[in-house]
Amino acid sequence: MFFDRPESGELAVLVHLELSAVDSPDDPREFEELALSAGADPVAFIFGQRSAPDPKSFVGRGKLEEIQGAVEEHGAELVIFDHSLSPSQERNLERELRCRVLDRTGLILDIFAQRARTHEGKLQVELAQLRHMATRLVRGWTHLERQKGGIGLRGPGETQLETDRRLLRARIDSIEKKLEKVRRQREQGRRARSRAEVATVSLVGYTNAGKSTLFNRLTDADVYVRDQLFATLDPTMRRVELPSVGAMILADTVGFVSHLPHRLVQAFRATLEEAASATLLLHVVDASAENRLHLMEEVQNVLAEIDAGDLPQLVVYNKIDLLEDSEPRIERDDRGVPRAVWLSAASGAGCDLLIEAVAERLGEQMVSGLLVTRPQQSRLRAQLYEINAVQDEHFRDNGDCELQLLLPRSDLQRLLAPYAGGDEGPRWQPEERP
């Protein structure tokens, strides 16, 4: 580590304060689930109320003594706060409690570090950790903050604190360059899918809403599934065939959480860009959660932060098997367009309705019909094959080609535009759709 700190353990005291200055306080149950997901063993849960945090230790003197008593009584080695602590508050608390102190951001970073599997995921977690650690270097090397003088003690003119900062900046720059390469590679993949007119549908939602279970159900994949927060960290993509629409790419993404640290959003921008560039977002919601409206609002906040708030969405109310008298169904708006689907990813009930609703949403701008081309229009035929628009073809005796097509209306208009107004152009016969 960059500085000496008390060793951490698993026996933890959890601290949650209700601050009157906060409009939407965090759920204490979610905080406990976060601690359990990180591998902590909570031995005490301390609650309190304050109008505003104490600038020195976040909590008041009385609450600090209560926390200290719980630490001594249970032999706890770790105190976790359900809040963001400043570096000075963290150090002051550790000095008073004589054990490791962790705030909400550090807790989430630790969970992410445990979940990362791919090289990209590990780089993103390390970047977020280093950015967080950079703010904690102050007062870390208190015994080396000043340069020493005297014969044999004159160094290169750089304090240990400055050395750590320089090494930290160098590592951050190195990781950012590697992640920029990842971003470019992902952008190339997105451009290739765009050229092939393959729609991308991204699963987004609050952590532990059942996104990976639904992903496995729809794709027959074997993505890691666990009833814990942030079980999925690395994105996974699979190709899915939809009736009357064709192929789509389904992407499983990292779950969101209340007050997701901004540095995490920055570090995981390469991953979250998959959601920001999607054709359609499937907003997966835990229908059994009592505060599901609040959780949905938190997801919308993160989507707005990654510039994905205006993308088309289809809400998926999952876990209806935990509700009484709830049947799989599709909810439609005034125009008859699917706006929500109720299902259970665990049992599979209603997943066929989701496929139907997604096909309808993606097929809103799709057209189908018969296009008759002349022999000299072979280039047009080749272009239609390039975008996977041809479903069937048949050649007439005179050399004309009948192409059965299914493609976005905008692509059809673009490809036929050069032939507009000509008598010898291709002839389009649209298919009547119900």
From TrEMBL:
<dbReference type="InterPro" id="IPR016496">
    <property type="entry name" value="GTPase_HflX"/>
</dbReference>
<comment type="similarity">
    <text>Belongs to the TRAFAC class OBG-HflX-like GTPase superfamily. HflX GTPase family.</text>
</comment>
<feature type="domain" description="Hflx-type G">
    <location>
        <begin position="199"/>
        <end position="366"/>
    </location>
</feature>
<comment type="function">
    <text>GTPase that associates with the 50S ribosomal subunit and may have a role during protein synthesis or ribosome biogenesis.</text>
</comment>
<keyword id="KW-0342">GTP-binding</keyword>
<dbReference type="InterPro" id="IPR042108">
    <property type="entry name" value="GTPase_HflX_N_sf"/>
</dbReference>
<dbReference type="GO" id="GO:0097216">
    <property type="term" value="F:guanosine tetraphosphate binding"/>
</dbReference>
<dbReference type="GO" id="GO:0046872">
    <property type="term" value="F:metal ion binding"/>
</dbReference>
<dbReference type="Pfam" id="PF01926">
    <property type="entry name" value="MMR_HSR1"/>
</dbReference>
<feature type="binding site">
    <location>
        <position position="232"/>
    </location>
    <ligand>
        <name>Mg(2+)</name>
    </ligand>
</feature>
<dbReference type="GO" id="GO:0003924">
    <property type="term" value="F:GTPase activity"/>
</dbReference>
<feature type="coiled-coil region">
    <location>
        <begin position="158"/>
        <end position="192"/>
    </location>
</feature>
<dbReference type="Pfam" id="PF13167">
    <property type="entry name" value="GTP-bdg_N"/>
</dbReference>
<dbReference type="InterPro" id="IPR035647">
    <property type="entry name" value="EFG_III/V"/>
</dbReference>
<keyword id="KW-0479">Metal-binding</keyword>
<feature type="binding site">
    <location>
        <begin position="318"/>
        <end position="321"/>
    </location>
    <ligand>
        <name>GTP</name>
    </ligand>
</feature>
<feature type="binding site">
    <location>
        <position position="212"/>
    </location>
    <ligand>
        <name>Mg(2+)</name>
    </ligand>
</feature>
<dbReference type="GO" id="GO:0005525">
    <property type="term" value="F:GTP binding"/>
</dbReference>
<dbReference type="InterPro" id="IPR006073">
    <property type="entry name" value="GTP-bd"/>
</dbReference>
<keyword id="KW-0175">Coiled coil</keyword>
<comment type="subunit">
    <text>Monomer. Associates with the 50S ribosomal subunit.</text>
</comment>
<dbReference type="InterPro" id="IPR027417">
    <property type="entry name" value="P-loop_NTPase"/>
</dbReference>
<feature type="binding site">
    <location>
        <begin position="252"/>
        <end position="255"/>
    </location>
    <ligand>
        <name>GTP</name>
    </ligand>
</feature>
<dbReference type="InterPro" id="IPR025121">
    <property type="entry name" value="GTPase_HflX_N"/>
</dbReference>
<dbReference type="Pfam" id="PF16360">
    <property type="entry name" value="GTP-bdg_M"/>
</dbReference>
<protein>
    <recommendedName>
        <fullName>GTPase HflX</fullName>
    </recommendedName>
</protein>
<keyword id="KW-0547">Nucleotide-binding</keyword>
<feature type="binding site">
    <location>
        <begin position="205"/>
        <end position="212"/>
    </location>
    <ligand>
        <name>GTP</name>
    </ligand>
</feature>
<feature type="binding site">
    <location>
        <begin position="230"/>
        <end position="234"/>
    </location>
    <ligand>
        <name>GTP</name>
    </ligand>
</feature>
<keyword id="KW-0460">Magnesium</keyword>
<dbReference type="InterPro" id="IPR032305">
    <property type="entry name" value="GTP-bd_M"/>
</dbReference>
<dbReference type="GO" id="GO:0043022">
    <property type="term" value="F:ribosome binding"/>
</dbReference>
<dbReference type="GO" id="GO:0005737">
    <property type="term" value="C:cytoplasm"/>
</dbReference>
<dbReference type="InterPro" id="IPR030394">
    <property type="entry name" value="G_HFLX_dom"/>
</dbReference>
<keyword id="KW-0963">Cytoplasm</keyword>
